[in-house]
Design brief:
Layout lengths: L5 E5 L5 H16 L12 H16 L3 E8 L2 E10 L8 E9 L8 H15 L4 E7 L4 H7 L3 E13 L2 E11 L2
Parallel strand pairs: 4-5
Antiparallel strand pairs: 1-2, 2-3, 3-4, 5-7, 6-7
This protein binds coenzyme A.
Length: 175
């Protein structure tokens, strides 16, 4: 692989440093047009409450975090959102799959996703769900990792006035 050693850490300690790095990563990915809940231009002030709410869910045990480090720096993440509803506790939803824009295209996203799948297996889950914003080709990335499209809300995501993208649901059975 072309990248330096990527270290994947499950459930990293939620230190102030980690929170700051997560915010910076989330802003950089969003600014580069990544589909992680925002549309550029975005500021740290816009992303901060969303990032803090997500870290709070991790702290409460409702979400699990997977962090990717390279040379001691946070370069990627994903989050496994567990279901509260007792009829749906056998699967989870992946959120905020992202790799720093300066490092995309080098195989890190695939490594991150593979580890998220293993993490879900180790949690005893039967399947993974994922929401994808259409129009970026990202669904092809997930399809190459085994996910199948199981639903699509046409123009369900409004990225600007009169400008909508499909809201695609993808699913990966784990057994
Ligand atoms: C999506 C993302 C996590 C992939 O990470 P990455 O490190 O760039 O991906 P990889 O280098 O591991 O690529 C894996 C494969 O997917 C393909 N791929 C990656 N991003 C793609 C995209 N946007 N469109 C089409 N194919 C893509 C690559 O070509 C590669 O295929 P290959 O192994 O056959 O060469 C990363 O590009 C990213 O952070 N994007 C912005 C945030 C985002 O939109 N996240 C998705 C939320 S649903």
């Amino acid at each position: 692989m072309a990248f330096m050693v990527l270290t994947l850490v499950r459930d990293p300690e939620l230190t102030p440093e980690l929170r700051a790095e997560l915010l910076a990563l989330w802003v950089d990915v969003s600014q580069a047009g990544g589909a992680v809940g925002f549309v550029p231009p975005v500021t740290a002030d816009q992303v901060r409450p969303v990032a803090e709410a997500q870290v709070a869910r991790v702290a409460e045990g409702r979400m699990r975090m997977l962090a990717a480090y390279e040379e001691g720096r946070l370069v990627g993440t994903t989050f496994l959102g567990l279901n509260d509803h007792y009829l749906m506790t056998h699967w989870c939803t992946l959120y905020t799959v992202m790799v720093h824009p300066s490092l995309q295209g080098g195989g890190r996203g695939r490594a991150l996703l593979n580890e998220a799948v293993e993490m879900a297996r180790d949690l005893g889950l039967d399947a993974l769900r994922l929401g994808v914003r259409g129009g970026l080709g990202t669904e092809d990335f997930y399809a190459s990792c085994g996910f199948k499209e199981v639903g699509r809300v046409p123009r369900g995501i409004r990225v600007g006035p009169g400008e909508e993208r499909d809201d695609i649901t993808m699913w990966l059975p784990l057994n």
